[in-house]
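2.7 Reproducibility. Because tokenized structures are sensitive to small changes in the input, we list the exact sequence used for LytR family transcriptional regulator, including any N-terminal residues retained from the expression construct. No trimming or masking was applied before prediction.
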Amino acid sequence: MASRLAGGRAQRDDDTLARDGGGAAARGLQRALGLTLASALVWGVAHLRAGRRVVGSILLGAFGLLIIAGAVTAAVFRPDLIRLAVQPTWLSAFAVGILALGLVWVTVVIRSYQIVRPDGLSTGAQTAGAVTVALLCFAVAVPVTWAAHSTYVYKDALTSIFRTGDSNGRPVNTADPWNGQSRVNVLLLGGDAAPNRVGVRTDSMTLASVDTKTGDTVLLGLPRNLESFQLPPGPARDRFPYGFTGDGAGTPGLLNEVYQYAEEHPDLVPGVTKNNRGPELLKATIAGILHQRVDYYILVDMRGFADIVDAIGGVKMTIPEDILYSRENRVLKAGTRTLSGKEALWYGRSRTNSDDYTRMGRQKCIMRAIAKQADPQTVLTKFDRLAAATKRAISTDIPQELLPAFVSLSSKVKSGAQINSLQFVPPLISTGNPDFGLIRKLSAQAVESSGTKPSGTPTAPTSPTTSGSPSATPGKSGDPSPGSTKGPQSKPVSLDATCPS
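Resulting structure tokens (single pass, no recycling of outputs):
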């Protein structure tokens, strides 16, 4: 009997010791996981607690330097960061750097757990600890992988849209990005492509002349149905010595037909590759019409415009009156709201109960709204989606090397620069018989009144297919068409004044 009682007491003592030991192991695992989580948030905590002061201090110091460097860079060098964000080489370096940082971070998490993990854990406890640490590593790896992937997508779009070198493939002088000129002139084109239409019609054509010191901008808008203009000297002028006729049957051609005609007739622009013929001939043609230098072009396919607007989160517009879109028999109601991409496209394209010239004015207001609202921070935070949209929708001949200069210039345009607009529409001109002398005179006056006066006499591009300034026989101005804009406007008007806000 006594031996049985002694054996029972011994068994109870063993059970108590097992329970106490299991509880201690559980508390040790919780402590280890807590220190591992703390080290994932602040490097070195686990090492310092485990008595490894040298390594812990190094990790803590490195983490502190990373935080301080990031904060100082974001606060002080933000403009430089934005300029670096449009340079493919720096984007590659950033992607590699963020992946390396992620690898170091995961290593710190794993090693922290290893040095504070208690001995004698059961199989279940070991599994629970390993799973928890794996989840912590996953939490670190996901944002790092996303950042590296997004950077790759952005870089791919950047290199797809912007090529290196100038139009002839020659290196660009980044020390003097504007070639000594006080203004840079960019032709903004809206391509009205569609599944049921062959080729591209440039239904929106605006030359943006930007003062490189102040950012002051004047927009010179040409109507899509302008006629009786000359093509630049060379093969194009030789084929149409009396003005562009398009179909060759003697009927005057329209300005929005030049782009596609050049793509279909490579002999007009010899030496220029496919998909570049249209822009080159149109740049030279518009340079001659306005007698203004055309440095670069940007073409936005209207089918992709909606995607770009959606990518930046929409565009806020004030609509003074209802706009009917006959294709869908819907109405865009008057008022101030954030338009989706589809609504913004609808706002800029509809001419039901209005005309081409009213539509041109609305398109300028969209440009103004996007320029004001799509700040670099918004673009960069949504660059993954925006990169995919712009890759589909935009083509340009702006060199990669000039992107930092253009980013700096765009910040000037955003920060209070004056944006004026002059549209060459009836009754200021007759689209069928334009007074090109008047157009050139008013263009020169508009540019000279916007910021710093341009240096040198404006000329067309100097390539064989775009050299010189086309001449044209001046016609009569006036002759307003039905539904045209209210009275001739011969001076540029501020978009801040003309666009509802």
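The first helix runs from residue 2 to 41.
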